[in-house]
Amino acid sequence: MKDRGRTAFWLLLGSGLIVFALAMGYRWFERGGAFDLDTVRIRGVRQADSSAICQVVGPMFGTSIWQIDTDELQDMLSDIPGIDSAHVSRVLFTSLILELRISEPVFAVSDSSGVSAVSSIGEVLPPRFITDSLPVVESREGIDPVVSMALAVWFGASDTQHDSLSFKYADRGLSVFVSDGYEVLLGNDRFSERWAGYQQLASSMSTSEGWYQVDMRYSDQAVLRKAQVNSASVGGEI
């Protein structure tokens, strides 16, 4: 029993000395700069603001990669406009890998301040995200953030061919101008539901009737208006 006790004691002591030596060795190497950040690899940067990324990461060069809070760095990178999310990982001995998920623009807003792209979560993106393929909503003033988010959901999920449509936003909400020359008024919410209702109605509408507006803002019905007649209402389920 005594021999077993002595063996366990020496094993415990030896293990403790090894751990202590490793800890001291790590501290010695760290103080010598063996783990100081000198390389950052970025994946998925594309349209992200590289200068903004440099401002976040730059001050960390020369700091031990083990002293860098990767969760905090991920949050800082995700706060940069145009970046949806970020993942940071360490690579021995002196590197970090930044994996970025870039925001996807789904439509653009043209107002008195210029043209801005809007992401699939309703975030206003930097100008470099603007492309010719984005549907453009014209607005004299800015669009309420809640409405902008609802529009982003609709444009992001819709399989509608936007090339033949034009969009305007005003006090009454979103208006869609179709190739037949009339306006489809969708209001400020339920865009997908109301547009689907209009498409169902449009399949049976006669363009020769002279409609200039189809108002979809009312529950379970559409209001069709002619240029020289006050209004004609079509009720019932749509």
Give a brief outline of the structure.
The radius of gyration is 30 Å and the shape is elongated. By secondary structure, it is an alpha/beta fold.
How is this structure best described in words?
A ten-stranded mixed sheet has the order 6-5-4-7-8-9-10-11-12-13, covered by helices on one side. It is elongated and about 105 Å long. It folds into two domains: 32-102, Roll (Ubiquitin-like (UB roll)), CATH 3.10.20.310; 105-234, Rossmann fold. Helix content is 30%, strand content 29%. The chain has helices at 2-31, 50-57, 70-78, 145-157, 191-202, and strands spanning 39-43, 83-91, 95-102, 105-111, 114-119, 124-125, 136-139, 166-170, 173-177, 183-187, 211-215, 222-226, 232-234. The model has no long low-confidence stretch (mean pLDDT 83). By secondary structure, it is an alpha/beta fold.
Helix percentage range: 25-40%
| SSE run | HEHHEEEEEEHEEEHEEE
Calculate Rg over CA atoms. 30 Å
- Our count of domains comes out at 2
Oligomer: single chain
Main β-sheet: number of strands, strand sense, barrel status? 10 strands, mixed
Spans with pLDDT under 50 lasting ≥5 residues? none
Number of helices: 5
Strand order of the largest sheet: 6-5-4-7-8-9-10-11-12-13
CATH arch. level architecture of the largest domain? 3-Layer(aba) Sandwich
Beta-strand segment tally: 13
Report the CATH topology name of the largest domain.
Rossmann fold
